[in-house]
Design goal:
Layout (H helix, E strand, L loop, with lengths): L7 E11 L2 E11 L4 E5 L6 H9 L6 E6 L2 E5 L4 E2 L7 E4 L11 H8 L7 H9 L15 H14 L4 E5 L7 H18 L2 E5 L3 H7 L2 E6 L2 E6 L1 H6 L11 E12 L4 E7 L2 E7 L1 H5 L6 E6 L5 E3 L1
Parallel strand pairs: 3-9, 3-10, 7-8, 8-9
Antiparallel strand pairs: 1-2, 1-4, 4-5, 5-6, 10-11, 12-13, 12-15, 13-14, 15-16
Helix pairs in contact: 2-4, 4-5
Bound molecules: adenosine-5'-triphosphate (ATP).
């Protein structure tokens, strides 16, 4: 996030109505073209509201949004572009595909270049959807549907790609595969992307930069590795590294244990087996090893 001519310049306020009463969301940041920014923070921090303000789905109280040479929002000049005039691709966790359209038709519907099928062919190939192109969503797995949702978002040729927990409904293996597709897309299209995620390995693997939100405000920003582990960043796409932390909580959940570890400024929740969790104690200092898929804990 540079301070001069950034591709995306965002500043907005919005009064939030939360269970704890009214809270002012007040956020500003800049993002360079082609970068992936991750937004992390506890439930209710305002992550989805931030994406919705960007998309024009929620009205900001005040602020401005500039994307390249375009102004999407400027409350002092009464500019508020409707969603359909903002060049965004949006992917939510629940796919939101049209049930009656085939995979190919979903992409064709989204593409502004109706007479040029080359982008559709390229996306079907890139996302390995060629064999499924004449299927409707009901016949596809969750991971396949999410690949279609991603391809459809890119078929719009957006200036900004907004990903709101896009992988959270998927199992670990699917999630890992989808991350590879997101990286492939990034290498090919260099889209400026904002990713809301609760999942640190995903942020470490995909994002160039990150923001931690709490109660509608940015409390920290920087590279994912510096924010979440107090370390110098590893090579992008090779996010395996080790940090240390203190165990705050060990609690049984459905078939496993949730262990919360404080690392630098952040609390990281890990899901461990009973055998792994019983070897640990509260307040114990442990090492946490992040790799692309699963953080591991070493007593
Ligand atoms: N349009 C709105 N006007 C006022 N308050 C809102 C509006 N939309 C959401 N809120 C409130 O703002 C708070 C933040 O909601 P938001 O969905 O942005 O949080 P979040 O960080 O995305 O949470 P989660 O991780 O649970 O999805 C919530 O308390 C919500 O009730």
């Amino acid at each position: 996030m540079t301070q001069s001519t950034a591709f995306l310049d965002f500043q907005a306020t919005k009064m939030l109505h939360t269970a704890q009463g009214r809270e002012l969301l007040d956020i500003s940041f800049r993002l360079d073209q082609g970068r992936i920014l991750a937004i992390y923070g506890p439930s209710g921090a305002g992550k989805t509201t931030l994406l919705r303000i960007l998309a024009g789905l929620t009205e900001a109280g005040s602020g401005h949004i500039r994307v390249g040479d375009d102004t999407w929002l400027d409350t002092t000049r009464h500019i508020h572009l409707p969603t359909r005039r903002r060049a965004i691709g949006f992917v939510f966790q629940d796919f939101a595909l049209f049930p009656n359209l085939t995979v190919r038709q979903q992409l064709e519907y989204a593409s502004p270049e109706k007479h040029d099928s080359s982008i559709i062919a390229e996306l079907l190939a890139l996302m390995e959807l060629e064999a499924l192109q004449h299927h409707r969503p009901a016949l596809l797995s969750g991971g396949q549907q999410q690949r279609v949702a991603l391809a459809r978002a890119i078929a719009r040729r957006p200036s900004l790609l907004l990903l709101d927990e896009p992988l959270s409904a998927l199992d670990e293996e699917m999630r890992n595969k989808l991350q590879e597709y997101i990286l492939k897309i990034q290498q090919r299209f260099h889209l400026t992307t904002i990713l809301v995620s609760h999942y640190l390995p995903e942020i470490l693997r995909l994002a160039d930069t990150a923001i931690i939100l709490k109660k509608g405000r940015i409390v920290s920003e920087g590279t994912p590795a510096s924010l979440f582990a107090g370390q110098t960043p590893p090579q992008k796409n090779n996010s395996s590294f080790k940090t240390t932390g203190t165990i705050l909580r060990i609690e049984p959940s459905a078939n496993a244990f949730i262990v919360s570890v404080r690392c630098a400024d952040t609390i990281i929740d890990l899901t461990l087996s009973a055998a792994e969790a019983t070897a640990l104690n509260l307040n114990q200092t442990v090492s946490v090893i992040f790799n692309a898929i699963n953080p591991k804990i070493i007593p």
